[in-house]
Amino acid sequence: MYDAGKILIGLIIFLAFATFPFYSNMGKAVAKPDPKLDTPVIQQMKVKQCVESKEFMRAEHMQLLNNWRDAALRRGERLYKGSDGRITEISFQNQCLRCHSNKKKFCDECHSYAAVKPYCWDCHIAPKEANNEH
Amino acid sequence: MGALLSFFVVIVLVLLALAGIKGAGLYVLFGTVIPYAAVATFILGVILRVIKWSRSPVPFHIPTTCGQEKSLPWIKYSKLESPAGTLGVIGRMALEVLLFRSLFRNLKTELRNDGPRLAYGSNKWLWLGGLAFHWSMLIVIIRHLRFFTHPVPFLVKIIDSLDGFLQIGAPHLMITGVVLLLALTYLFLRRVFIPQVRYISLPADYLPLFLLMGIATSGILMRYFFKVDIIKVKELTLGLASLNPGIPSGIGVIFYIHLFLISSLFAYFPFSKLMHMGGVFSSVLQETWPITAV
User: Fold this and answer.
1) 8 A C-beta contact, residue B278 and residue B49
2) Distances (CA, A) of B109 to B102, B117, B118
3) Tens digit of each residue's pLDDT (9 = 90 or more) over B244-284
4) B173 to chain A: which residues are within 8 Å by CB?
5) How many helices (H) and strands (E) are present in chain B, helices listed first?
6) How far is B150 from chain A (nearest CA, A)?
7) What residue ranges define each of the domains in chain B, with the CATH number in brackets?
8) Residue B168: pLDDT above 50?
9) Distance in angstroms (rounded) separating the CA atoms of residues B281 and A10
């Protein structure tokens, strides 16, 4: 090998970068996020159903909230017709957060897992968590 | 022809993943076995390739400096182009590796009819396209570390939020995603529309472009259009990284297509022109020009 010293140092640096995900996770057990649906409002509901299906909300809620923002604040449309035909009032504060009043145990649970920092809370007031510990 | 062949190879790869997941349900193969095999091939392949290169004797180190070299004290020398000390060499190398300085000198030549005479002109488009592609790619890779680390490092979060700072839509539009695809499109079109470049382009020149385009397109489709449950995706990727692989149910097929194309790129890397990444060892270090590519 020619220039062995320099090349070996380079290869070690390459290895350090390429295997970073492996050694940085060594011996760590990460708990899966477990968003809680046990707020008082949800517990009192007879049919526990969001505006759309659970699968849809899991993948698409950010798009739905963005569309709601545009509809309510930019076009003044305050009614949302779900895919099952139900009509809901468009309001993050009064609709979404009425049931999901547990930001820490619901929103943040997945968002911190996926390192997502949504800007909802730039404008909206996060619900007071003390009320949710029933 | 080369372009068509490479295009079909990528289409076949997409169809393989689609059939493997949708048709045969080979989740463990596409979600665990192939990614591991691809990463192992990548790491071992790159190391072996570089070691193989380093065994070739280089009788003379011929620096391809191109500025005024240091001579008499009253002749101003080019500190970065023709460095005389370690600091200058580091500066020259950094400019080459980070900003592709040698490509910045890229010229175009054409035969003018008035004469005829040969004319040279500045041509910065390849430099710009290359730079846009490589930096976007780097940022995209760093951003993807959020799927392989927990807690996610601060640097990754910062880059993620800067990349999405336009705050278009939700999830936020990532600037590098768009730049990456545009730069790849330019690098491809350049091979198609410049006759001289088309003439020397081989399938091995088009394949990395199409593979990367496929990866970028599937990623963009997955983020903005056919959304998948990102929490389950992270469960899978984090499982891979912590050597505790598992297959959460219900991840859309677009994810497996994305993953399979990336695995293909990783496995193909050591055998392809993409090894110009490892070429720094035999070029910049020995003060010659880097192996150019794309």
Assistant:
1) yes
2) 17, 10, 7
3) 899 999 899 999 999 999 999 999 999 999 998 888 666 65
4) none
5) 12, 2
6) 7
7) 2-63+127-282 (1.20.950.20)
8) yes
9) 8
B190 CA: distance to closest CA in chain A (Å): 31
Triad B44, B33, A33: Cα angle to 5°:
110
Q: How far is CA A18 from CA B32, B134, B257, in A?
A: 18, 17, 22
pLDDT, average across residues B67-78: 90
Tell me the pLDDT band of B59, cut-offs 50, 70 and 90. Answer: confident
Residue B120, φ and ψ in degrees, nearest 5: -110, 140
| Average pLDDT by stretches of 10, chain A with 134 residues | 83 94 87 89 88 91 94 94 91 91 91 91 80 45
Residue B234 has pLDDT above 80, yes or no: yes
- Interchain contact, B281 vs A20, CB within 8 Å: no
Residue B130 identity (one-letter amino acid):
G
A60 HSE (CA, 13 A, CB side): 14
Q: Which two tokens stand for residue B59?
A: 């009788």
Tell me if chain A has a CB within 8 Å of the CB of B56. yes
Give how far A71 is from chain B: nearest CA, Å: 13
CB contact under 8 A, B285 and A63: no
Q: Each residue of B109-147: pLDDT tens digit? A: 888 888 888 989 888 999 999 999 999 999 999 999 999
In the block, tokens 């095999």 appear at B37
Largest Cα–Cα distance in chain A? Answer: 75
Name the band, by pLDDT with cuts 50, 70 and 90, for residue B164. Answer: very high
Q: Do residues A88 and A61 make contact, with C-beta atoms less than 8 angstroms apart?
A: no
| Strand, coil or helix: A110 | helix
Cβ of B170 within 8 Å of Cβ of A118? The answer is yes
**Which residues in chain B have their CB less than 8 angstroms from residue A63's CB?**
169-171, 227
